[in-house]
Design a protein that fits this description.
It is flat, with a radius of gyration of 33 Å. Helix 1 packs antiparallel against helix 2. It has 148 residues and is mainly α. The N and C termini lie far apart (78 Å). The chain has six helices and two strands.
C-alpha cells in the first residue's frame, strides 16, 4: 500500500514538472518527462510493484538468492582450482581430423604435429626449412628499398 502511494506521488510530481516544461515551450522534453513519470503508475497497475514487495520481504526468495550465490561461488572455485592446476584439457585437431589432447601450456607448433602411431607421443619437431629465411630476405629488401 505504501509503495503504491509513493509511486503515485512520484508520477504526479513528474507530470507537474512536465506541465511546467511544456509551458516554457519545450514540448519534446515535456513529452519525455511525461513518459518517464507514467512508468511508476504503470508498474503499480500491472502488479509488478506488489510482486517486488512480496519478493523483497520473502525469506524463501532470499534463501533462493543465497542458493544461487553459493552455486556461483562453487563454479568460481572450480574454475580457480582448474586454472591453478592446469587440469582443464584442450583438444587440438590434427590434419587428418582426429582430436589429440593437449596441455594448456602447450606451444602453438605442438598443436599441429601428428602423434606417433606406436607410442602416441608427439612427433619430433620439424627442422626449419630454407623458406623461412627467404621471408626475412624479402623483408630486408623492402626495408632497404625504403631506406630503413
Amino acid at each position: 500500500m505504501l509503495a503504491e502511494t509513493v509511486c503515485s506521488a512520484v508520477s504526479a510530481a513528474g507530470l507537474g514538472i512536465a506541465v511546467v516544461t511544456a509551458y516554457r515551450k519545450r514540448f519534446l522534453t515535456a513529452l519525455r518527462i511525461t513518459a518517464y513519470s507514467l512508468i511508476p503508475v504503470g508498474l503499480v497497475m500491472t502488479g509488478a510493484v506488489g510482486w517486488l514487495a512480496r519478493t523483497a520481504f520473502s525469506p524463501l526468495a532470499w534463501a533462493g538468492f543465497g542458493v544461487l550465490g553459493a552455486s556461483w561461488a562453487l563454479f568460481a572455485l572450480v574454475r580457480a582450482v582448474e586454472h591453478r592446476r592446469g587440469t582443464r584439457t584442450a583438444r587440438a585437431v590434427t590434419g587428418d581430423g582426429s582430436a589429440v589432447p593437449v596441455s594448456p601450456s602447450a606451444s602453438a607448433p605442438a598443436l599441429g604435429r601428428k602423434p606417433d602411431r606406436r607410442t602416441g607421443a608427439p612427433a619430433a619437431p620439424a627442422v626449419p626449412s630454407r623458406a623461412s629465411s627467404d621471408d626475412f630476405s624479402d623483408i630486408e629488401a623492402i626495408l632497404k628499398k625504403h631506406g630503413i
